[in-house]
Amino acid sequence: MSKINVRNIAKFDYESVCNLIKNSLGYDNEFAVLSARLNRLTDNGYITLVAEVNDMVVGFVGFLVMSAYEFEGDYIRILALASDKEYQNIVVGTALLNTVEKYASDNDISTIVLSSGAERTKAHCFYENRGYHKYGFGFKKEM
User: Fold this and answer.
1) Do residues 111 and 75 make contact, with C-beta atoms less than 8 angstroms apart?
2) Contact call for residues 48 and 42 (beta carbons, < 8 A)
3) What is the reported pTM?
4) Which of these, 10, 16, 77, 99, could form a disulfide with 6 (CB 3.0-4.6 Å)?
């Protein structure tokens, strides 16, 4: 297996991330709209990392460091994590999670949270196999 390189996103990665959002997560985005959104997210402190294999982006994770109302200290909320379907069984997702966990450790952050759609049962197993546990329900209302 080739080495997985995880690094900060660059503007030249936007098209690959757009494809991952569409093909792996199932959200269709126009490239121009997504590019503007990625710029806005970066400008607002969101962190986006990409995973490369042989200089090809095959996964990404986006997260934000946040403060909690219910406990002291910061936590990380993972907002998106995806890997190319052809690379899902070669630990791309694990490499991305490990990088987020190292970031948490390096910055004295003790909690990482994420949401995963109810229908994404394979993703639930992936997270549970890496020590994450279900702790609540998410709700959504579109306006």
Assistant:
1) yes
2) yes
3) 0.90
4) 99
Closest CA relative to residue 7, chosen from 54, 48, 64, 39: 48
Say which residues have a Cβ less than 8 Å from residue 58's Cβ, sequence separation at least 6.
4, 51, 52, 83, 84, 86, 87, 92
* DSSP-based three-state secondary structure for 137: coil
Q: Are 87 and 96 in contact (CB under 8 A)?
A: no
Mean pLDDT, residues 64-71 taken together: 92
What pLDDT digit, counting tens, does each position of 112-142 carry? 998 887 677 787 788 888 889 988 777 878 8
- Contact yes or no for 5/18 (Cβ under 8 A): no
Pairing of the two strands 112-114 and 4-8? unpaired
